[in-house]
## 1
Amino acid sequence: MTGLMKEQQHTLSPPMSIPPTPLYTTATGMFRQSHESHLCLFLFVLKNGAVPGEPVKKDENSRRGNWGNQIEFVLTSVGYAVGLGNVWRFPYLCYRNGGGAFMLPYFIMLVFCGIPLFFLELSFGQFASLGCLGVWKISPMFKGVGYGMMVVSTYIGIYYNVVICIAFYYFFMSMTNLLPWTYCNNPWNTPDCSGVVGSGAQLNGSLVNVTSNLIAGASEMVNRTKRTSPSEEYWKHYVLNISDDIGNFGEVRLPILGCLAVSWCVVFLCLIRGVKSSGKVVYFTATFPYVVLTILFIRGITLDGAINGIKYYLTPQWQKVLDAKVWGDAASQIFYSLGCAWGGLITMASYNKFHNNCFRLDSIIISITNCATSVYAGFVIFSILGFMAHHLNVPVSEVADHGPGLAFVAYPEALTLLPISPLWSLLFFFMLILLGLGTQFCLLETLVTAIVDEIGTDWIIRNKTIITLSVAVLGFLLGVPLTTRAGIYWLLLMDNYAASFSLVIISCIMCICIMYVYGHRNYFKDVEMMLGFPPPLFFKVCWRFISPVIISFILIFTVIQYKPITYNDYIYPRWSLAIGFAMALSSVICIPIYALYKISRSPGATFRERLKFACQAHPKWGPALQEHRTGRYAPMASEDTVEARPLKEKEEQKEEQKEVEKERKEEISLTIQGSNGSTNTHNNPNPSA
């Protein structure tokens, strides 16, 4: 123990070291030393990104940097893929589309579409070590796909952080003895309000009395013909103070605006050093949600009626398997929940080391973890909702909801039925915050990396923090309109249109470009050079045929099943729907616009020659580091190799310079004359004169 203390004192910074005294022989002294040592260790890791006493690992790519280890990348990818949709969308889709029967098409779509696309994007970014813009050196004409990914990530990043800020607000409001959405005796409540617990006048405010009046409150609710829950009125009339129309912005909700500032500050601070700092943060943000889910699950299954909720969630209705809508929902959920075509997967993989095995551990395990989390979250959600339905004596379907309605209305109301409800509320909203932050980290890093890689100067690489701060400030300002009284309308409009069918089109074009324009044989060789083995036959078939077909099916299904967006009883006006379609098209339109621009700037006498040149891989396409440019990317591989020509020309110029210098030396030696061989006539052009 004494040697360990000396080692800690030597490793930690001098200001925090503690001189050895007899105090260390006592339990109190040992606790004090341990406390200060851990505090200093935390500060050192936060500042330097390394643990004292451990050898500092050198980045393979010193210019861009790499993940500290593979675990950081895996946890970041898990945090990116596992988001709010796993909690508030999947359970609802599952019970609506046949319960346990929905699992069959869901996992089929995971195997044939989700995992292959996930592996494709990871290998794409890792091979080039570039973000979602730089990777399109593979075929410069398709760089518009990268710009489309940036536009989508911008839209999502703006409204996603607003959802996180609302979760922050509910988290802060849960720090009380009694949740503010428990009763109907508040200034914002209406006469239609009816709680699931007894009125505040009947109770003395203690949690024991709240629990004892559950049955009375439930009976009162059932007797009413029209019921508005306290949590719904708290959400509409207090948190949002929602206006009557999307065009009626009203004033900014200052508490929400303040929480939005807090949310962006947290995101910026966690990304202040790029993947070096976010890679350390995800050890907590990507793992603690599972701790909270487990706590809520254990608490939920011990409640009365929880089994009914879980049965409602899982009971298979096999006849729905024959419904095309069920398969469409399964494919869409897999596609959107994994974060394909957002640009985040390409960006995160670009910080991997070149020979990292992104197939076995990364692609398969992360994809399966994402889907398993969705299923697990369903147990947590429906155990609590089953308990709520049991107390209200109503079917589970009447209390089930999805999206913001589940996160900020249905589930918070169910939590009021539990003893020590503020504790469970704190845990639930803290989990939502962490789930949202994991995705938001990658969205912001995607934009920053794309900008830094595109400009590529030494100054911007050294000052990447300034770019991160600028993007965060801009994201905060663009999110301010969503904190007004009409903000929820715009948030749902962006959620439904900004990242809907546009993602499907982007992903489909990406597959076509890599497999058919660049060439599947070329890409398979690239993956083999990177991993040491070619992609399995299954993935080759999926990339070329199955996945594009499924993506096309998702697109067709999305168009056929399209319905104008509504929010409860509110119907969006046509002008707002036009804005929604404009947001959706703004990302897709980048692809043809940039393609036409690239073709017009390409050399060639005819349109066909220009098109062919624009589709060819850029000479700089390939591994980022010279040490990895082997085989057909080797500098002297072939005189006809496009990638080798610039390097070959440089080598030829060096050889020519050597020949010129050699000839000059020979000429100088001939001009040296004299009887003793020491007379230098370099300054005399006629030595015989």
## 2
Amino acid sequence: MRKLFFSEFTSCKETKLHSAPLSWLPLEKGKPSKFAGHSSSSIESLMKMPEPAVLPHFKPADYVGILAQIHEELESCPPDEKSCLYLLQFHVFRGLGEAKLSRRSLQSAWEKASTIHEKVVFGAWLKYEKKGEEPISDLLRSCGKCSQEFKLLDFVSQISTESYEISYDDGSDVFWGSPVVHLRIRDDMIACDRRKLAALSTPLYAMLNGGFRESHLEVIDMSRNGISPIGMRAISKFSLSGRLPYLTADVILEILDFANKFCCNGLKDSCERKLASFICSRQDAIDFMECALELDCSILAAACLQVLLNELPECLNDEQVVRIFSCASKQQRSTMVGNASFSLYCLLSEVSMSTNATSDVTMTFLEKLVESASDSRQKQLALHQLACTRLLRKDYTEAERLFNAAFTAGHLYSVVGLARLASMRGNKHFSLKLLDSVMSSRWPLGWMYQERALYLEGDNKLENLNKATELDPTLTYPYMFRAASLMKRQSIEAALMEINRILGFKLVVECLELRFCCYLALEDYRAALCDVQAILTLAPDYRMIGGRVTAKQLRMLVTENVEQWTTADCWMQLYDRWSSVDDIGSLSVIYQMLESDAAKGVLYFRQSLLLLRLNCPEAAMRSLQLAREHAASQHEQLVYEGWILYDTGHCEEGLQKAEASIAIQRSFEAFFLKAYALADSSLDPSTSATVVSLLEDALHCPSDRLRKGQVWLYGFIFFHILSSIILKQTYNA
């Protein structure tokens, strides 16, 4: 939805932004101009809004029903099925746009993993999702706790050793040959205990004490079996002690090949564990993975997989890594990841789509995902995601086949892809027929009316978009289309009111961009500056006007038409906007204040509070980390560290940081953090009184006028804390 405004901009180069008059923008450098002279062509381009994207998510028709079903299945299913169910729950929340809940489901999938392979896949996925959050792991270590998902698993200790020894009876099991057999490898002779060597596997037993000629020989030539004298001596020692001595990787690979050839499972297991300890780099993992897949070594393959996944997404730029995942057969996938093949390719597809949704690599991973799907819900997700990629690649015939397969399997949302494809062929009537068929068979949803509106014109289009908003107010496209339509009719203020409807409860960068345009049309440059600064807070590298100019450049241009505020003005504006709960305005003021020499730690912290209130957790965490970096004192830094830990689900560790801060200096923020964390981490009935006392201590501490002016807000949060405690106590009772 970035291609929104002003087609005239195509003639204007970014490099000339400050040197040439801009016909596409209703202002020139330092000199306002009238919007009327530009309105006809400028506003017309607003109508060229792209259609809403066909989202590559699992979007069931009944979210409540599917979540209830998953919950029910989790309570009754065997332990080895829990991770797959939590993965499905993750995709449901991802389709709803609930980042925090989807992260929680992923964490549960990792915690409930029943195999080492699942542990590897979900651990790597969590690490990928938490990219940039490595400082949190450092904070946890400072509290004496480690973030387990960031650690590589110790395969040697976590995979149990099975007993592979062949049983034999010393009294009745007669060995016809001499008790000692010499194995000749070129010029070397290695003496071995015939009985112990035979016990390594059934084939060796048959060779050394069966109907073969070797069972009567005292010297057996092993020169053509690819084993060196050093390797054979190690095998002899292993037959006596059950342990391999320290050897180089090359020699262990020789022994592994020998063990695979003669079906020595215990020896093979020991070799795999030894080789796992040699994997120190991506190239080591690539080299050993090829060997592991060829010789069906599941332990070694899992150890290699862990190292490769630990380097996501960077490792997918390596052709050797991509080839391993792309070319793996069904048997090789089983060796590499056991029964977690679907989970693995879910992760790889997710990473690859976020990098380049139309690449060959993405398509190959999605094809493997389809192959790995084992039940109806997995097939719905895999087929729909592959169909979306085919659609983006303009492979319309295959996209239609896949959307149809997903729709037939039960994924109702895939009808959107089928409708778009019919429309591309000029058959909008068939698109409407498809949607009407779906809507007549069940209770219609908001996205159905939104999609239907795409194939209608005039009042019918607006009527369907209004119905879409009525059923699902969170859909962005209807608001933007209505606002753009009003701008086309010169009803700028009405357009502004329309876009404010969604910005009142959902912060969307594209909507801020559209409102920025409305303010320019009204020549309200102060308000336009406010929105572009809010955009930069949310997305510092955001590009506007169809991606052709950076938000920073537009801000510079608009700033020259606005009177600059002093530091005192900024504080007054921040107080007024904060008090009136104008969160977007507050973000803008803070952005401007951060350019000065003000106390950046405090400002970044205020910024994080606003972003949390606006449901922008990622941007809020970024601001919190910046607050920590710019803290003016140790006790202030401890408070920010406590909030970082609290917001990432580590309440007890956040509490520790609050107490450490209070020990240095009593402050409003430290007491408030302690009260909040204590209320969330303790079920003790006496906690209520403690929380009240902590909040009273907080209000008695010095603080800036901004925070003191929010007594009503503290009261609301205090009520929320007490309600939380009461609900927990009731639930436990």
